[in-house]
Amino acid sequence: MGRRRQKKRTHVKKSEEELKNIPRSMVIHLGTALENHTLSKLVRDTRNMMQPHTAIRLRERKSNKLKDFVVMAGPLGITYLMVFSQNEKTGSTHLRMCSMPRGPTISFKILEYSLCKDVVSIQRTPKSISASSHEFLNPPLLVLNGFTNPKDASPEEKLVVTMFQNMFPPISPMNTKVGTIQRVLLLNKDKETGLIELRHYVIDTKLVDVSKNVKKLINIKSHLNKKLPNLSKTKDVADIILDPYAQAGFTSDSEVEEDAVVEVREIDDSKPLTKPVQTVAKTGDDLDDEEMDQDEDITKQTEQNSIKRKKAVKLTEIGPRLKLQLIKIEDGVCNGKVLYHSQFSKTKSEMNKLEQQHAVRKKEKENRRKAQAANVAKKNEKKLLKKQRREERKKAGEDVGESSDSSSDDDVDMEDYSDVDMSGSEEDADEKLFDDDE
């Protein structure tokens, strides 16, 4: 697979603050899910859906545990973790979405799912898209349907909505170009059953107000690989522009629906701004008034340089499909107390007992951390004392052997990993997690 082309001369690089604010996700599957071939394909399709801010070539092994990925998520800047798992006894598939590094964790039960190849096999005219195509250069547009108003919604529904919204970077209408949005991620909730259906689409746009031959010429302008049409048989320019056999650029009326035709403003880059934006150091209300005037000038100039065109918008599903059922919400990353459960309800006395148990566990963790920090401090003190004695003996002219203090050199500063059960070191985990597919 060829490397994706990256523009360097005209591409505007993002600042460090903007890069830090971009949410990054990691999609993994653990346990018996590694042996399920179809589930591993679903994980691969989900990674393509979450592009571009996700690890596509992530490779898990049987020796890896969930805590290995949690530990490595911090240095890599991962903000959300999606874990696919399968129950050994019942065979049911589950999806856990974790907000790093402190939670919460939302657990869904996957009732039904369809892979990308299954969705494509049903369609008459499927859309052939690879993982390195230009549709995946930008994150998808998230569309929520069937969810109640946040003012009237229940707390668990609010949390689910905010979790899905924060997994993708926000879109600003003033700065985001319409052409960069090429995919749609639809979440439809059934109000009666409470099930959430996930669908993934690609946006296709076609010109409507021009003829078929003019569309070919416009496409040649943007795609330099295409050849110019043969104009040797034409006697007049009207034969090219006016095509009597095409109806508004399409060969049949069934290709475009009337509801799908919309007007889109396209900015003409060939026309530069007439008034350059100048920044002057001012303070107070004068600065605010000047910024408003500059914004008005820019909007007027963009409206003058923009061209209104009618386009037909069509959504083509590329998969995957998921039908999710909310099971529970936990505090923390897959190990905290249960905040909500759809199948079980507990009394206040039972809730108080659970809170006491969690409080005891927190105290035990704090005591272990304090004890380990005290042990590390004692080792460091012993190490310093041995070094001082060694230097004093050297100054006195005594021969100091390295064998006596070899044990002190082996002592290294230890970090607090008392609450992390890792199968290997960080370097081994790094090699296991990021082996590229051959």
General description of the model:
The chain crosses the membrane at residues 66-84. GO terms for molecular function: rRNA binding. The chain has 438 residues and is α+β, with helices and mostly antiparallel strands. It has a domain at 16-170 and 187-199 and 320-341: Rossmann fold (3-Layer(aba) Sandwich), CATH 3.40.50. It contains 11 helices and 11 strands. Strand 6 and strand 7 (196-207) form a beta hairpin. The protein is extended and about 105 Å long.
What is the tally of helical segments?
A: 11
In helices, the fraction of residues equals 25-40%
Mean pLDDT reading? 76
Shape type: extended
GO cellular component, one term: preribosome, large subunit precursor
Pfam families: Brix (PF04427)
GO molecular function: rRNA binding
GO biological process, one term: rRNA processing
Outline:
The chain is 34% helix and 20% strand. The chain has eleven helices and eleven strands.
Per-chain topology:
Blueprint: H1 16-21, E1 25-29, H2 37-49, H3 66-76, E2 80-86, E3 93-99, E4 105-114, H4 116-122, E5 141-145, H5 155-166, E6 183-189, E7 196-207, H6 212-222, H7 238-241, E8 261-267, H8 285-305, E9 306-317, E10 321-330, E11 338-341, H9 348-396, H10 406-410, H11 426-433
Parallel strand pairs: 1-2, 5-6
Antiparallel strand pairs: 2-3, 3-4, 4-10, 6-7, 7-9, 7-10, 8-9, 10-11
